[in-house]
Amino acid sequence: MYSIPGCKSESTAMSEITLEVQGLSTHFETRAGTIRAVDDVSFSVRRGRVLGLVGESGSGKSVTGFSVLGLVDPPGRIAAGRILFKGRDLTKLGEAELRGLRGNRIAMIFQDPMMTLNPVLRIDTQMMETVFAHAEVSRREAWVRSRDALGMVGIPSPEERLSAYPHQFSGGMRQRVAIAIALLHQPDLILADEPTTALDVTIQAQILAEVQRLARDHGTALIWITHDLSVVAGLADEVAVMYAGRIVENGQVSQVLKRPMHPYTHGLIGSVPSRNKRGSKLRQIPGMTPSLLNLPTGCAFRTRCQQADEKCELDPPITAPAEGRMLRCFNPQLEAIV
Amino acid sequence: MTWLLRRLVQALFIVLAMTIIVFVGVNVIGDPVDVLIPPDADQAERARAMVALGLDKPLWEQYLRFLLGVLQGDLGRSFVYNEPALQLIGSRLPATMELAVTAVLLSIVVGIPLGMFAGLKPDSWLARAIMAGSILGFSLPTFWVGLMLIMVFAVQLGWLPSTGRGETAALFGVQWSFLTRDGLAHMILPALNLALGNIALVLRLTRAGVREHLQLEYVKFARAKGLSPARVLFVHVMKNIMIPIVTVIGLEFGSVIAFAVVTETVFAWPGMGKLIIDSINVLDRPVIVAYLMVIVFLFVAINLLVDLLYTVLDPRVRLETRE
After folding, report:
1. With 80 as the cut, is the pLDDT of residue A288 above it?
2. Is the keyword Nucleotide-binding in the record (chain A) (predicted)?
């Protein structure tokens, strides 16, 4: 896609594109009408790089992730767009082919580690079944791979822990188990859906560092779905900001965070508590996230936007205001954030 | 192990409490002497009968004698058959047990697969038909369904016999119907009659569990691992929902034994249920008491078994018992 001159990435030799999403729309047909949970979304991630997908709850981040895995359940469906995984369009694949990719070439880590592991199955069962799903190996081999994966994510005495049940692990340890499961087949792409939101801050930092290292070492592309800009700042190479099912701004992390152009990104950055002066009122974006069933016409953010005018009642086109940047706004804020 | 010991002591107290309730209750429903002696008997004959049956003693003494007997494995002698009550019940128990076990097995092998299907494809016409049928299954009265089964399969079609146990064969010195072809044919209708309500219950429970659990995160995670839908359903979901299903099947097993009365009466099945109805009619107290004690014992034993099964199914329960 776009090349970024002078950015911090070490080389471009490794920069083959792992995932390219083009014009993806995922809709849910309900009795109350069609919900456009994901609406004309495009982004790409390259090998060994991290894309932060940022937005409030209900902005379509998770549905985007599930769309890539082909795990959108009815009444939801992918209405338009292409999902190119190493050149293959996933929207054209059958269920069996998709299942062959899931957990194998594309892995996902979920938000709440307390809910993702099956409470009545032992850890070794849950890990080894993942090995068997994609590789014809002996039980012994599957067990060894599982143990090594647990060791890799920093779980002490993995041999013993393999025969434990999920409730015998803390939240942070469970998330490590989930990450170990995701790493079992050394996937090309990991979708991480707010995997540290439910964890303590200290554990969060450990997991972030761990995942970053693992992705770099294996050349895995990583999509980190989060609502937390500070996580993105520390982890991601690129960031895509989602609002009401659309990506409103996209670009290099360093540039987007320093010079946000979309008023929504501005608002998000402005409302990070550490940026506000002690004793002064916390800045916030006025209004509430609109219901996806009842979106304003044109730009969905215009009812909460101070820059909005009549133009915004039309759909804003996608523009490239700077190299490697993408923006969906008629009235971008061009001054740097203070 | 302390847990098991505690449960056993609890069970003992439940049985003890039941003996009091049963003993007092049976005393209230009527005086058996009136039924047993001829209507023209005089006062002296009446008094002799009361002494012979031990009914001249005060209630507390009767109860203590009964308890003493229970400790020696003696639950009294039937007034009518003049046989030990326990032996009488024991001779009828196998007939009821084979009916109850068959009914429970039927509710498992029919109820669980149908429930899984209805939970997996809730909008299909077949699932809707199953659910509608299940409402009939537990809302139609057992005796009426029994009569209808006889009407259709025995009278109109003439496919299956409708009364008695048919031919039996001996195993461990007990006569069983399920060992002969003829006996099996005789079992089909009453077992189906007894199972119908339970099939409906197990089916609905399975469906609700499958529907609920398919929405949970662990299922989505299992699918994201690339597991086959069969593995997700049969291993991940089923192992979770077996916990409530086992509870209900355990309870149902107890009530199937206890409430086989209606079915046994309709199909003239010579089990415990028929015996207890006959005994209540003639106020044969020792048999009523012994029957109720056997039922209480079975309930307690089944519940204990269900609790033990929990620890196999749910690792979280296992941990608590260790602590």
Report:
1. no
2. yes
The region of weakest confidence among A273-277, B24-28, B36-40, B239-243 is: A273-277
Q: Which chain A residues are Cβ-neighbours of B313 within 8 angstroms?
A: 120
In which element (H, E) is residue B49 found?
helix B43-53
Three-state DSSP at A29 gives strand
**pTM value surpassing 0.95:** no
C-alpha B317/C-alpha B307 separation (Å) is 9
Under 8 Å CB pairs connecting chains A and B tally to: 77
If one counts every other C-beta atom within 10 angstroms of the C-beta of residue A18, the result is 26
> Phi, psi at residue A252, to the nearest 5°?
-60, 140
Residue numbers in B near A181 (CB within 8 A): 225
Q: Mutation test of the interface with chain B: which of A109, A120, A136, choosing the one with the most B Cβ atoms within 10 A?
A: A120
* Cβ neighbours around B82 below 10 Å, total: 8
pLDDT digits (tens, 9 = 90+) for B89-104: 888 888 888 888 999 9
Cα A303–chain centre separation: 26
Bigger pLDDT: B30 or A25?
Answer: A25
Q: Are residues B185 and B252 in the same domain?
A: yes
Architecture of the domain spanning A17-95+223-327: 3-Layer(aba) Sandwich (3.40)
Beta bridge partners of B178: none
Residues B145-201: pLDDT tens digits? 888 888 888 777 878 777 777 677 777 767 777 777 777 778 888 888 888 888 999
**Cβ <8 Å between A121 and B313:** no
Q: Domain holding B218: CATH number?
A: 1.10.3720.10
CB atoms B226 and A110 under 8 Å = no
**Judging by DSSP bridges, how do beta strands B169-171 and B174-176 pair with one another?**
antiparallel
Residues B40, B162: one domain?
no
Q: Measured between CA atoms, how close is B315 to chain A, in angstroms?
A: 6
> In the predicted model, is pLDDT for residue B109 greater than 90?
yes
Question: Which chain A residues are within 8 Å of B228, Cβ to Cβ?
Answer: 99, 133
Which chain B residue has its CA at the smallest distance from A183's CA?
B225
ipTM above 0.85, yes or no: no
* For residue A278, pLDDT beyond 70: no
Instruction: Print the domain residue range for B121.
Output: 97-322
Gyration radius (Cα) of chain A, Å: 21
CB contact under 8 A, A110 and B221: yes
Every domain of chain A and the residues it spans: 17-95+223-327
**Quick check: A103 and B226 CB within 8 A?**
yes
